[in-house]
User: Fold this.
Amino acid sequence: METASALAQLNINLFRAGVWKPRTRPGHFEGNGIPALEWLSEVRKTYNLPVTIEIAEPAHVDEALKHNIDVLWIGARTTVNPFQVQSIAEALKGVNIPVMVKNPVNPDVDLWLGAIERFEKSGITDIAAIHRGFSGYSSASGYRNQPNWLIPIELKRRRPELTLICDPSHITGKRENVAEVAQKALDMRFDGLMIECHPNPENAWSDAAQQVTPAELKHILDNLIVRKEFTNDMGTLARLEYMRQLMDSLDAEIIDLIAKRMEMSEQIGAIKKECNMTVYQPGRWRDIVNTCSLRAAKHSLSEEFIVDIYEKIHHESIRIQLSVLE
Ligand code: PEP
Ligand code: MN
Assistant:
């Protein structure tokens, strides 16, 4: 109630709370269950805030509906499991309640979309996707979950009408980084944010490091820059259009060059065949990687990015040469 009374002063649309919490290992706080649903009814009544909870099985659906929860969400550990998603979707047949679907723990856009489609097939019409990042063994990004922005962008490309929400709390795992990821999400044209909040973060029973106080949340929200996708300014549009045409012609040149390179691969394949040589030569590939990395560095391009592209090009080149050998 303390959190709710503070958040009611802010311009938020939805109050989230974990009634049942999926924990990676047993022995941690797993939520207060049914009694907590009563607390949410109180939040709803007292502050006129719609409320949302995570549900992970059909029994949760029944209890949530009994307590007039406004919106349901599916957690990352549930989205990965089509059987589980299906049984929840079936429990929701004939009920029209908004459902938010978090991305699965692994970066698989089809699995994410598959869960969304199961709810659509059950007749749910109001669906949002929540990007909460992906598990990885090492956190090279310094975040709790790898953001892997390409995945939500691909989801939005396939389903432009879906509402896309970012959860910077679970991506970063650290309150200090919540604002920067929230801003990044807005800059990538996300429609909303889900942020964890606690009046006394150090004492939170789960995910303490990523909780922000209501005052910090207000600060984050007040400082977010909300940009627009389009502009009507003719001068800006003309400049953009000019740059885009230049870029399109560069892209055409890049593809023409790649085509030339692949033709060369074919000729090299023919030479290797004549002399009975192997297609793959580790030393030659190491040289290419070194030369490309140096050139990338000279242009202040990320070496990792260029090597990544070259791995794909080299792979295709090997495929072509193998087909020449055969
Ligand atoms: C949560 O939102 O508190 C949660 C458990 O998130 P996720 O399913 O993204 O891990
Ligand atoms: Mn959490």
